[in-house]
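new request in #modeling-help
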Amino acid sequence: MAEPALQRRPRKPLDWSTAFLAVVVFGAAIVVYFRDGQARFLEILGSDVELFLDILPKVLAACLIATFVTVLMPREVVVRWVGAESGFLGLIVATLAGIIVPGGPITVFPIAAAFVAVGAHIGPTIAFVTSWTLLGYGRALVWELPFFGPEFVIWRSIVALPLPVIAGLLAGLLAGLIRPRDGAGA
Amino acid sequence: MILLVDGLLWSIAIALAVVAGMRSHTLLRSSAYEGVVDFFKLLPRIMLGVIGSGFIAALLPHDVVGRWLGADSGAIGMAIAMVGGALTPGGPVIGFSIGSAALKGGAGTPQVIAYITAWALFAVQRVFIWELGVMPQRLVALRILASLPIPILAALGAMLLGKP
């Protein structure tokens, strides 16, 4: 390994949050089964399994992108564009990046974590995640458009345009107020 | 459209792999291996999240949502919209489908904007599955704190701009 400096959080396949979710999901599934009958239960299960299989290749691609980005991205470039000194411009750059990046939470959170690992500052990182959340084109085109129609989507996006920058500014301020616990990083 | 997202993701992944491979074969092999290992570690969470969201959505009372977010529900409606959005399970469809159903059922546009925005930012299940699994805890906490005023700002912006 040529470049050591990486710090990736060890990822456990099962932990308390997953266990909590499992309890909620199994509870909901049991209630649906007894309230709505077996046919409805199988219908929901079928469409969800389909969605799951559809998501798998995206997850794999995102995991690979995240590891490659961590290894390849030159630290100086990240620090210059979205590092601690990048200021307001860094927030704008991060917001644009959030609009462009494809995929869902599967893509965005690993990439955000990777950027932090190679030196991105907290403000731009939060602006990036928020921008993807509110403005990401993939989500708007694939999911929001069919439900709401183009006028509503465009209108909502215009309203949301300044919000990632605001979230980034706030996060930067909060990061100064709330110190990290014993070297937790970020 | 979904194919486009897949294609774009894989093009990026392959382009990065080529760059890594040009630098050194060991680098390509070790980081590809690490990526695949990450993928398998994420699988149980994803399976629960995606397969579970349908069951959770089936239990949500859609008509009640529409009534509480009415156009004349004002600031209280927005507050309810925010909390409701955060409690709506993640996944790509649920928030949008409830939001559009509420809009059709007489909910106000600013309230629906607050609801969708809060759902997009805070959906509890997404925070648990995706964020906490992948990002440092401190980063997640800071993101959530910094995002607290965002749904209200979005709703206010929507009121300011007027209906589309």
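bot summary: The CA atoms of residues 83 and 118 of chain B lie 8 Å apart.
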